[in-house]
Amino acid sequence: MAVPTVEMIPVSDLAASYRGVVLDVFGVIHDGVSAFPGVRAALGQLQKRGIKTCLLSNSPRRADEVAKRLDAMGIGRDLYQGLITSGELTYQALNDFFEFPAGSSYFHIGPMELAGLTSGLPMNASRSLDTADFVLATGWPEDETLTGKLLPACLARRLPMICANPDLEVFIGDKKVICAGALARDYEMLGGRVISYGKPFQAAYLKALGVLCLSPEQTLAIGDSIATDIVGGQRAGLDTALVLTGVHKNCLTPAGGVDHFMLLELFRQHDVEPDFVLPSLGWPSRARR
Fold it and tell me: Domains in the chain, start-ordered, CATH in brackets?
C-alpha cells in the first residue's frame, strides 16, 4: 500500500499570493513560554512585503494584556496591524447590555489568574451557583475534582455558560492544558446552553477582516488547530494553513518529517483539510530578499 503524502511548504512560498494574514498566536507564534525560532523574522518579512497581519487568538485575556506578553517575547506591535482575542470579544459582548445572557451576576470557572476578565464592567462575581445568573468559563477548573459536580449543578439551574476560550487544549511549553472549550463542549453534551466567543465562529473572522480591510479571498488564515483555526477559517471563506508547532505537533516525527497517516486521520476526523501545511511559521534564510 502506498504511503499517503501531505506536502509541507514554507510560509515564504505563500506570501505573494495574499494581501493579508489572520494569524493564530498560541502554538504558532509562541509555545506559551517563548517565541518560536524565526517567527519575528517571518512577521517582519510579511510587513516588508506589505502583507497586513491581524493576530486572532482564543486567549481568554484582554487584547492589551496579550500584546504586553508578546512584547516581552520580542514580538512588538510594529509587527502586526491588529490583535483580537476571544477574551476581548467576550468583554465587549458583556459590555453591550442587550447581549447579557441573563443578568449581571456570574460564577467564574477557570484559573484564578483569569478571574479579572470582567474588571471594569458593571458585573458581580458570585461565590455560589445559587446566586449566579450565568457561568463565565475561562478555563478548566483548578480543582478538577469539582468538574463532575459543577456542570450538573449549572444545568439544574439552567444557567447559560459564556465561554471565553473555545480552544479544547493548548500546550504551554511541553505541558498540555485543557481549555474552556472542552468544558463548554461537555456542558453542551449535557444539554446546557453555551455562548462562545472567538474561533471557529465567523464573527471573530469578520472582525479580523475588518481590521485588515480585506476580503476573505485576499486573506490567508494560519493556525495550529484543525478544530478552531482551520474549520473557522474555511467557514469564513479564507484559505487556510495548518502549522505543526502547536496542538498537532505529534504529527511531526523526531527527524523533522511528518506522519502522513496521522495527519490525514486528523483531517478525516474533522471532515476538513487545510489548503496548506506548514512545518512552522519560520521564514527560510534563502527567502529573505
Answer: 11-87+202-287 (3.40.50.1000), 98-196 (3.40.50.1000)
